[in-house]
Design brief:
Layout lengths: L6 E5 L6 H9 L3 E6 L5 H5 L2 E4 L5 H10 L6 E3 L7 H11 L6 H8 L1 H10 L7 E4 L2 H11 L3 E5 L9 E3 L5 H10 L6 E5 L4 E10 L2 E12 L8 E5 L5 H17 L5 E9 L5 E7 L7 H10 L3 H10 L13 E8 L3 E7 L10 E5 L6 E2 L8 E9 L2 H14 L1 E5 L3
Helix pairs in contact: 1-11, 4-5, 5-6, 6-9
Length: about 400
């Protein structure tokens, strides 16, 4: 089953992994994709799609051997849970990219923060807690509010801003539900503006591709993003925000590839790293928003990096502002939507639904609770925001509340 360029293993094959599968094929590779969900769209798009336990790397390796596939790369595009399984494939076949040890640094917030702090990177004060008593001790140390989160979660799942001591125990239990190891972090709340820094590291150099600011969904205590936008900031401030992220990536000794870092900076310029992910951000941030605003095809860079191909490592400044705004969900069943088609073909607006008729949705509790998004760009931020506002007025999702 040899091909000219070889096979790439995709761990996870959902909608946010589809861009990586298609890009790999576009670049001349064949893809064998694994996912635990038999309905994962990428299983059909891959050259070989396998429904199975992505954490059983021995079974995956045995399957590859049976098919006489020796992969040249392994990817886990925008997938936090896929990072360690993909790393195990890399380690077994001696492939380029993150090792298992590095993947642990990038997915375990306890390990990550210990390394970042030791390396001089800016992180908020935090404690690893196993139960309410240890959480109460952390609250006594930091004061309220605090942020409680799983050490190995993603997408704001299990993250709670605790504003009263009565909320602490429930917050700890919620965090444990979204942790594979029941690990919980209690951290000092940083009062400031939250930014995301999209980076790429190559040949020992890390560059910031895009810095965005966040607005949050009302009623989520600042834990779920409503929109990301490129803020009007001085070049010095952009460098400061980017520098905090790059400092953390350097401390982790990240060998290369895409990075998605969340940073909080207060009015005096004091900052802290919320988390560093060695993957792209989901919900169209990675595959569409970065390219829309910068011209950089970061999906192509990622595939080429994972197989050891040379990258033209230049950041293109398109001199524009961008907005990535989400349509928050509400409890019920999607019966349809309208208004999206009128924006097809637009050069400066992308509108997309994440749901289809019959999809069951819930009230907003995490980043996954989104109906769709609009991406808009313009030479001025105000104009980009106005474009997003216009789309939001014209697009409607119909939700039937069936109790």
């Amino acid at each position: 089953m040899a091909t000219e360029k070889g096979w790439i293993v995709s761990i996870c094959a959902g909608v946010w992994q589809l861009c990586g599968i298609k890009k790999a094929q576009e670049l001349g590779y064949k893809v064998v994709a694994f996912d635990g969900d038999k309905t994962a769209i990428g299983l059909k798009e891959a050259d070989i799609g396998v429904c199975g336990d992505i954490f059983d790397h021995d079974a995956i390796i045995e399957f590859l051997k049976e098919k006489m596939i020796t992969p040249v790369g392994a990817i886990a595009i925008c997938s936090e849970i896929g990072m360690i399984p993909a790393a195990k494939i890399r380690d077994h076949f001696n492939l380029s990219g993150c090792s298992v040890e590095m993947a642990k640094r990038l997915t375990n917030k306890k390990v990550q923060r210990e390394i970042c702090r030791k390396g001089g990177a800016e992180v908020p004060d935090w404690e690893y807690v196993k139960d309410y008593a240890e959480g109460r001790s952390a609250v006594d140390k930091f004061g309220l509010p605090v942020i409680v989160k799983p050490i190995d979660g993603a997408g704001s799942r299990g993250v709670t801003k605790v504003e009263s001591i009565e909320e602490l125990e429930k917050a700890i239990e919620s965090a444990k539900e979204f942790s594979q190891c029941d690990g919980v972090i209690c951290e000092k709340y940083l009062c400031g503006t939250e930014y995301t820094v999209e980076t790429f590291s190559y040949n020992g150099v890390t560059k910031a591709l895009l810095v965005t600011s966040k607005n949050k969904v009302e009623g989520t205590r600042g834990t779920v993003a409503r929109e990301l936008f490129t803020p009007k900031l001085s070049s010095e401030m952009i460098d400061r925000i980017s520098g905090i992220a790059i400092q953390g990536i350097t401390a982790l000794e990240y060998p290369g590839g895409v990075g998605h870092t969340e940073v909080i900076v207060d009015s005096e310029g004091n900052g802290g790293i919320v988390e560093i992910a060695g993957r792209g951000g989901g919900f169209n941030l990675f595959e569409k928003f970065i390219r829309f605003c910068t011209g950089v095809d970061v999906v192509e860079w990622t595939i080429k990096h994972e197989v050891g191909e040379k990258i033209n490592f230049e950041v293109m400044n398109k001199d524009c502002y961008g907005v990535l705004r989400f349509f928050p969900s509400r409890k019920g069943v999607v019966s349809g939507y309208t208004g999206i088609d009128q924006y097809s073909g637009s050069e400066d607006v992308i509108v997309e639904s994440f749901v289809r008729k019959g999809t069951k949705v819930r009230d907003v509790n995490s980043d996954g609770d989104r109906l769709g998004c609009v991406i808009a760009r313009a030479e001025e931020l105000d104009v980009a925001v106005e474009l997003a506002d216009e789309v939001e007025e014209n697009v409607e999702f119909f939700i039937e509340n069936k109790g």
